Amino acid sequence: MRHLLGILGMVLAMAMSAAPALAHSTVKSTAPVSGSILPASPAEVTITFNEPARMTSIIVVEAGKPERKLEFKPGGSSTVFMVHEPKLSTGRNEIKWTALSKDGHPISGAIIIVIKPGAAPSSPRPAPSHDHQGG
Ligand SMILES: [Cu+2]
User: In terms of CB atoms within 10 Å, which end of the chain has fewer, N or C?
Assistant: First the structure.
């Protein structure tokens, strides 16, 4: 009898661990990945879910700056969401997103991206002036 209960317990444990049917949507991947150290702000940030979700907000928290909302696409249900030109600051950037899981529950996460200091900004340097006034 003891032995049978043991087996039953094992079967039950296995059944419970193998029940992902009602799980929340989860992030499958992000680009860049969290923890990336980049020489400049990426052209875009993408967040990919394992199943369609609805992104509700994406904000970036930069060191010493107020939180900033990031525009993302698309607005409806999708598996991939994209932020074009996030214009991340030098230093640590925490991109915090919130979304609605396919099952209707709120889910959230964050991507940390560090932009290396000292890297050249993408804007061109002002051309040296050649006015020969005076002298
Ligand atoms: Cu849920």
Answer: C
